[in-house]
Amino acid sequence: MPSIAALSYAGGMAAFLALTLVLAIGWRGRSAGTLLLAAASGNTLWAGFLAWQAWSGQGGPVAVALVDGLRYGLWFVFLAGLLKGVAEPRIFRGIAAIAAGLPVLHFLGAAWGSWAGGGSGGAVLAGSSMLTGILLAVFGLLLVEQTLRNTEEDGRWAIKYLCLGLGAIFAYDFFLFADGLLVQRTDLDLWAARGAVNALVVPLIAVSAARNPSWSLDVYVSRSMVLHTATLVGAGLYMLVMAGVGYSIRAYGGIWSGTVQAVFLFGAGILLAVLLFSGQLRAQARVFLSKHFFNYKYDYREEWLRFAATLADEEGGPLKERVIRALARIVESRGGVLWKRDENSDYRPTAAWNMRRTEADPLPGEDPLARFLEESGWILEAGEWRERPYRYRGIAVPEWFSVQPEAWLVVPLIYRESLIGFVVLGEPRAGTRTLDWEDYDLIKTAGRQAASYIAQEEAAEALGEAQQFETYHRLSAFVLHDLKNVMGQLSLLAQNASRHKHNPEFVDDAVLTIEHSVERMQRLMEQLRGGRNLSQPVALDLAECAREAVAAHGDRKPVPTLEEPGPVGRVVADRGRLVAVLGHIIQNAQDATAEEGFVEVRLGRDRDDALIEIEDDGSGMDADFIHNRLFKPFDTSKGSTGMGIGAYEAREYVRELGGDVEVSSALGAGTRFRIRFPEEALVEEPMDLAREVGQ
After folding, report:
1. What are the Histidine kinase domain coordinates in residue numbering (predicted)?
2. pLDDT one-digit tens code per residue, 484-542
3. Alpha carbon distance 491, 515 (integer Å)
4. 660/677 Cα distance (integer angstroms)
């Protein structure tokens, strides 16, 4: 029957043999990897020889000292190789000489002791080799300490387990040899445990090898295997502790000890079963093991440089498209759509890259999906969302998400703890891909960085618009000066016209026209100066304003037509501004429509809302132009003939009155502007509001 020493050393041989095979499979020929492979192989041979010796009883102290010295020498060479790049040449030469000389001295000491009779009988080691064994252990501890000390602080993470494992082996040997030197014989129990002690440090050496890519050792251990092994080990330790507690209860529990022990062990078993079947606990254990015992799958420096370069590449398209592309590259997605928060706090699709952008209804800011993304910052995965919605607070999958079968991930864009948008990424190029904690952490962090870029661009655009308005106001001052001169000339003409009349009827009409022009210019001057308007807001019939705007543009083709089935309603507004708003939209429709086309103005009601629709069959606009340019100040498609503020001013004034402007259009299919005034913006009867406005 094998002795305990044979089993111990056989276990050490099996552990180091497994490590040697893993290292050999991943070997790439680099010096550090070669030395580690040699040291692990030497440790395997050492443990195998001592297992054979313990089983067979053959092999004397000299042979033991020989394999012991070989094992120490190989570990010394490996540690010296790590120190070669950081230690001074003179010191390194001294370390190399000692590393080569001590194992030889150990062998010679054992040989002399055996020759002199110190190793006769059943001694495992000669007495003289105890002293050299102590020297070997102390020098090994010195090399471990120097390796850890001379490694930069950032690199200690990669070698700390190696130093811990080898330091433990050398410390155990020091204790073994020191004890033998003191009592002049080898403690057989300590000697038998030496093989198992070496086996226990193999996982520590493997972890360090995996953390050092410079050794060219692709050490890979299945995460599932590590999780299951850790679970079994943890369960075993738990059962040992519970058994010890149960034994204590039985031994010291008195007359009820048996009953209490049975209840305790049953409860401990139930608790163990609950823990083993806990999905959340398994997930947390998997993340913990991945973070602390495995290499990262990403080179974060390379990923971040590529991400930043994509966002900063202005030639790569608009920023929103670059954001989609940068996020998609991280997970190898085919494309995506970016949803952006608008001025009404709703989310709309504003950009797309390699993916179809659906014209879906806006997602309200108070929608459960938007609130979940903002509060949790989680990334939603389509498959899991549909199969296990309880993980996402039971949020229903939106219709716009369902009609996009290629949708895969929803990445929130959070800036200053506020959701400014989100990106819907399409399926990965590889077809299927399982994401883990590292993918989610990287994408989440990248999403926050992308959100800051978008917020910065919006701030720059707002600043640019403010500067443009400032320029516009400066220009207005020059216009006011010119208008003042014209007004003075027209006033003089009006005063002197009666003195030079030849045709009284003609002159009278001319005077009325000139006076009307003077009145209009005075009103324009007041508006340009930013003062109060000369005309007061009154309750206006929308039908009357529409008729006036249609009549004012009836001299151009296509001639606008008016359709008014009945009363529409009244709003409190300035007549001139409201008619100008309607006229601007009609004029734009005429500009975009051929002479044989049509421009129709329709009045109506939608339940309690008043509607004014202006529709044409002109060239139309695409969705990108409507979302990003139509209502953007000073952005015009008319070249030098337009200023780009008409549509913006029309929408802002309608909103000032409590209404809103909706636009639907398609290229080549015409455009429809719908001005909607809700019930709360309407008044029942005409009234004079001059007193109220003055107050």
Report:
1. 478-681
2. 545 655 665 566 666 665 666 656 666 665 665 666 666 666 655 554 454 578 888 99
3. 8
4. 7
Please tell me the distance from the alpha carbon of residue 290 to that of residue 316, in angstroms, as a whole number.
36
- Residue 87 in contact with residue 110, Cβ under 8 Å? no
Residue 562 or 403, more confident: 562
User: Taking Cα atoms as reference points, which of 575, 496, 513 lies closest to residue 542?
Assistant: 575
Distance in angstroms (rounded) separating the CA atoms of residues 315 and 277: 53
The percentage of the chain sitting over the pLDDT mark of 70, rounded to a whole number, equals 76
- In sequence order, the 6+-apart residues with CB closer than 8 A to the CB of 669 are 617, 620
Q: DSSP string of 382-439?
A: HHHHHH-GGGGTTPPPPHHHHT-TTEEEEEEEEETTEEEEEEEEE-BTTS-----HHH
Q: Which fold has domain 4-220?
A: Rhopdopsin 7-helix transmembrane proteins (1.20.1070)
What are the tens digits of pLDDT across the range 318-348?
999 999 999 999 988 989 999 999 888 899 9
| 131: its two tokens | 């002293």
Q: What are phi and psi of 134, to 5 degrees?
A: -60, -45
Can you read off the two tokens belonging to residue 328? 């998609």
Reported as a single tens digit per residue, the pLDDT across 232-242 is 777 777 777 88
Q: Cβ neighbours of residue 185 under 8 Å, at least 6 residues apart?
A: 123
Distance CA 410, CA 252 (A): 60
Our measurement of the distance from residue 289's CA atom to the centroid of its chain's CA atoms, rounded to an integer in Å, reads: 22
Query: Minimum mean pLDDT among 10-14, 26-30, 387-391, 646-650: which range?
Result: 26-30
Q: Which CATH architecture has domain 538-694?
A: 2-Layer Sandwich (3.30)
Tokens of 407: 């949708």
Cis amide prior to 558 (ω within 30 degrees)? yes
Q: How far apart are CA 162 and CA 548, in angstroms?
A: 89
> CB of 335 within 8 A of CB of 353?
yes
pLDDT at 216: 47
Dist. CA 43–CA 15, nearest whole Å: 10
Any idea which fold 300-458 has? Beta-Lactamase (3.30.450)
CA geometry: angle 13, 42, 160, nearest 5 deg: 85
* Nearest-angstrom CA–CA distance, 544 and 536: 17
In terms of C-beta distances under 8 Å and separation of at least 24 residues, what long-range contacts does 180-189 make, across chains too? 180/125, 180/127, 180/130, 180/133, 181/127, 181/130, 181/131, 181/134, 184/127, 185/123, 186/123, 186/124, 186/125, 188/5, 188/124
Instruction: With beta carbons less than 8 A apart as the criterion, state whether 677 and 571 touch.
Output: yes
Q: With 60 as the cut, is the pLDDT of residue 643 above it?
A: no
Q: Which strand (E) or helix (H) includes residue 642?
A: none
Question: Tell me, what DSSP letter sits at residue 70?
Answer: H
Using the 8-state DSSP alphabet, how is residue 87 labeled? S
Residues facing residue 604 across a β-bridge: 611
Q: Tell me which residue of 418, 429, 444 sits closest to 327, measured CA to CA.
A: 444
Sheet with 609-616, strands from edge to edge, namely: 561-563, 599-606, 609-616, 671-677, 660-665
How much is the pLDDT for 473?
65
CB-based contact 46:4 (threshold 8 Å): no
Q: Where are the domains of the chain?
A: 4-220, 225-293, 300-458, 538-694
